[in-house]
UniProtKB/TrEMBL annotation:
Domain of life assignment: Bacteria
UniProtKB keywords: DNA-binding, Transcription, Transcription regulation
Protein name: AraC family transcriptional regulator
Organism per entry: Saliterribacillus persicus
PROSITE patterns per the UniProt record, alphabetical: HTH_ARAC_FAMILY_2
Lineage: Bacteria, Bacillati, Bacillota, Bacilli, Bacillales
Length: 286
């Protein structure tokens, strides 16, 4: 079983930037989550990216917003490698003082979380504007003048404002226009989300997708970077993490609510995927 990578604020943070980076598929991270937000811009190349149950094509001018604690995994095209710039930033860095009632700099992240549409395709004009923002961040970080990190964070605020001004209708349209050849897999992710309490088997899901179990297993692993059992255990673990943070329920009750077979199974799976026990996780998040 593939253990997920859990990046945290101590590894990169509070702010990190990759400018026009390119990775071979074999060097891409497996499916992972982290405590910070991520903005990805595609300069050129093609590939796919899996974000929280949805599979997207990656093309020039695409922006992907990955909120914290959101499962994701990129698969570049071996014959047309993606070149992208990525901003990693802690939510704590973003100014949240209310000046206007209907706006905050994290508005776009909140919309993305609510509507579960993580991709925005920019027009040619907006690509030029966005690329200038990224170039300005790179110049500040390379120049290392007084306050250069503060300057990079200020530009990140500008980017968040710029993206917030793009209508939510565009996000909806982007989602509807996604590659329909992968629509059956998106339907499967939705089915799994609503069926975690039951016995979800490979044969059942393959039958629902109208493909063979072997084909289903291959496409599922290519899409998510993991097997079906690992994926389901991760989904149940994410649900448990939310309950541990937001309720005072006993761990045994959380194991039941998170659809694990037993409390011991819950403990073993949680420790393996998160790296700590449920009790210690709750203590550190209080």
């Amino acid at each position: 079983m593939m253990k997920p990578i859990k990046k945290n604020a101590n590894s990169l943070f509070p702010f990190s930037f990759v400018y026009k980076g390119s990775k071979d598929p074999k060097n891409e991270l497996p499916t992972h989550i982290h405590d910070f937000h991520e903005i990805i811009y595609v300069h050129k190349g093609t590939g796919t990216i899996f974000i929280n149950n949805i599979l997207y094509d990656m093309n020039k001018g695409d922006v992907f917003i990955v909120p914290n604690d959101t499962i994701h995994h990129a698969v570049p095209n071996q014959n047309d490698l993606v070149t992208s710039s990525v901003i990693f930033f802690s939510p704590a860095l973003i100014q949240t003082i209310a000046v206007e009632d209907n706006f905050s700099y994290l508005l776009i992240v909140e919309k993305i979380k609510k509507h579960k549409h993580y991709k925005i395709s920019l027009s040619v004009k907006n690509q030029s504007i966005f690329e200038q923002f990224l170039h300005n961040i790179e110049e500040e970080l390379n120049g290392k003048k007084l306050g250069f990190i503060h300057a990079a964070i200020l530009i990140t605020h500008q980017i968040l404002l710029f993206l917030s001004r793009l209508s939510i209708e565009q996000i909806d349209k982007t989602f509807r226009d996604e590659n329909l050849n992968r629509f059956w897999m998106n339907e499967i992710f939705s089915y799994i989300d609503h069926s975690l309490r039951g016995n979800i088997s490979l044969n059942l899901l393959a039958k629902k997708a109208h493909v063979s179990p072997a084909h289903f297993s291959r496409v599922f692993k290519e899409t998510t970077g993991m097997g079906l059992t690992v994926y389901i255990n991760k989904k149940r673990t994410y649900k448990a993490k939310e309950l541990l943070r937001e309720t005072d329920y006993p761990v045994s009750h959380i194991a039941e609510l998170s659809d694990f077979d037993s409390t011991p199974h819950f403990y073993r799976t949680f420790k393996k995927l998160v790296g700590t026990t449920p009790a210690d996780y709750r203590k550190n998040k209080k």
